[in-house]
């Protein structure tokens, strides 16, 4: 059951990313002379920053849990969340 639960979230993440990519390139945007097509950046940069802040928040939460309990699994979650957040910030 746990494997199905983990797979479901991964599939959902891939579907959301594909939707964002397709929407970013194909959906209409307001036509303004000053913006041209640069407004399309909001389709990519804003979700990337939200994801980055979310994984950094998860990292802080599990870092505090690790300091309280000393369980290494919490430290591993915190480290990998930080690595994911740094990777997201490099892509942006």
Quick description:
With 92 residues, the chain is mainly α. The chain has helices at 2-26, 41-69, 72-91. The protein has one domain.
Descriptive key words:
80% helix; single chain; 3 helices; mainly alpha; 92 residues
If you had to describe this structure to a student in words, what would you say it looks like?
The protein is mostly helical and 92 residues long. It has one domain (2-91). 80% of the residues lie in helices and 0% in strands. The longest helix is centred in the middle third of the chain and has 29 residues, at 41-69. The relative contact order is 0.09. The mean pLDDT is 86.
Write the layout of secondary structure elements.
Blueprint: H1 2-26, H2 41-69, H3 72-91
Helix pairs in contact: 1-2, 2-3
Distance between the termini: 35 Å
Instruction: State the helicity in percent bands.
Output: over 70%
Structural domains: how many: 1
Beta-strand proportion: under 5%
**Low-confidence segments:** none
Q: What number is the mean pLDDT?
A: 86
Number of helices: 3
Give the total of beta strands. Answer: 0
C-alpha-based Rg, rounded? 17 Å
The chain-level structural class is mainly alpha
């Amino acid at each position: 059951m746990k494997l199905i639960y983990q797979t479901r979230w991964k599939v959902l993440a891939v579907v959301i990313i594909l939707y964002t990519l397709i929407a970013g390139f194909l959906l209409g945007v307001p036509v303004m002379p000053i913006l041209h097509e640069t407004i399309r950046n909001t389709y990519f940069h804003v979700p990337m920053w939200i994801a980055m802040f979310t994984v950094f928040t998860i990292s802080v939460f599990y870092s505090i849990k690790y300091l309280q309990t000393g369980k290494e699994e919490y430290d591993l979650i915190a480290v990998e969340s930080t690595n994911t957040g740094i990777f997201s910030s490099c892509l942006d």
